[in-house]
Amino acid sequence: MDTLHLSDIAHGRSGDKGNHANIAVLAYTAAGFDWLRQHLTAEVVQHYFQSLNPSRVIRYEAANLFAVNFVLQDVLAGGASRSLRVDTQGKTLALALLRMPLPLIDNVSSMLRPKGRTPHER
Amino acid sequence: MKHVRIGNGCGFWGDNLDAPRELAEHGRLDYLTLEYLAELTMSILALQKQRHPEAGYASDFLDVLQQLVSILKCQPQLKIITNAGGMNPYGCAVRARAILDQAGLMKRRIAIVHGDDLLPHLDELLAQGHAFTNLDTGEPLSTIRERIVSVNAYLGCQPIVTALQQGADIVITGRVADASLTLGPAVYEFGWHWDDWDRLAAGTVAGHLIECGAQATGGLWCHWQETDLALVGYPIADIEDSGAFLLTKPPGSGGAVNRETVAEQLLYEVGDPAAYLTPDVVADFTSVQLSECGRDEVRITGVRGQPATDSYKVSIAYRDGWTASGTLVIAGPEAAPKARRCSEFIFERLRRAGVSPAHRHTECLGAGDSVPGVLPIVDAPEVVLRVTVRDTDRAVVERFAKEFAPLVTSGPPGVTGYTTGRPPVREVFAYWPALVDKNAVAAQVHIQ
Predict the structure, then answer these.
(1) Cys bridge to B56: A49, B87, B221, B381, which one at CB 3.0-4.6 A?
(2) What would the pLDDT profile of A69-102 be if each residue is shown by its tens digit?
(3) A60, A74, A89, A115: best to mutate for the B interface, most B CBs within 10 A
(4) CA–CA distance, B47 with A113 (Å, rounded to integer)
(5) CATH of A6-101 given 2.20.130, 3.40.50, 3.30.70, 2.60.40
């Protein structure tokens, strides 16, 4: 089996608050959420984005959405207007995190996005 | 059972100009909200007003209003709530009045909400002990006092409710919390009490979900390929007295409303989801229940809220030097290393000329530099070289901007894309978040 990525078990979105960014990662299933809670820690995310020098990463949970939400402090090199980077607002950070390769997970099939043309038809 | 349908046709200044008309035409709306003010928009508007006292508002709104007049004639009950007033709600209202009058809509009432602009009283407030300490860094305001261009409190929905009670058909505000544009009409229509924290939180969730326009209806959705975004419909919150609401979009429009699009947007630009702070309420997003009712319909229930805090958030913008950013296309082979070498040429030539920008950044876009050091490195067939500098000295940045064109003839082969001319030099406005006691701010409503 090919290597799976975080995007196989979760979707997400990122945005800015001044010089901080947030990345929401939302599991497709309850099993996927359990995996995120155990394995996608603040430390893992801080290490993954170490080249962007976040001063601190805080993790919150929203079980009702199967979601973990990360705040990456001081990660935008100044934020909108001041930052010299092309992505001053952290718009691309969620996609970058979702490209994280997953280790081998026993019950990964219970974490994949349920099949169906659109979510409401499943 | 009474329902109030509130649609948001604009998520930021620069959003699709036709969206408000499409939404008003097909959305069966009671209220149309239009949101124009990003964190730093006020600094731009403040400078516009300095140069031209009649300016300083989101002028796009006037183009939109012009498009909307025929719809306002057919839908006399439709009301508009917008923060397009920016730094000059009065100036915006004068122009809006002229548009309505010319269309024969003399009886529609325009209200303005102001009092968010604290710059005229800043020294007085500082003398009274309001410190405006930087919320992120703890620094005192004295470090930037002389460079401040705008100071605006995020007002809540109370003045919007007052305006509607006074019979306003169009409410033009300065800075208010984005979600308050939606909560205001809900509170007015249902008569929700100011300590009914669960309902205030529900209306805030509705406002938060629709405030960024199409981001709730398929925009930014990770599975965007499953719909057609070309003609994306803008979001509608169909709210009940209980606070429960249906999130949807006009029938037949593009985009999608489902658990995924709504959940992604619910957490957009959020810190602690259990405590989303607005001037009106502290909303608990972890209490939100989402259920798909049908195609492009998600019902939101169960929202809980806690009492609002005693302070308003304040957004301060200050001058912070000058910046310029230039781009060139660099063709391979070895496009990325070639591009990096080109950037070195620029700075070597500048150094010879005695110019050394304080801050510099080089990106090879196409080779993974949008998230540098995180994305996998690829051998791109070509890259966009983007070089950006910032310095307190405008002359330094201007000299940098002149060092791009020479690379077309004095660099390696394969340098192209220099068609936009010298990169423009623009002033940098930095953002300073702070809090202020609510009792130090007087929101005001004025019916035109």
Answers:
(1) B87
(2) 999 999 998 877 788 999 999 999 999 999 999 9
(3) A60
(4) 49
(5) 3.30.70
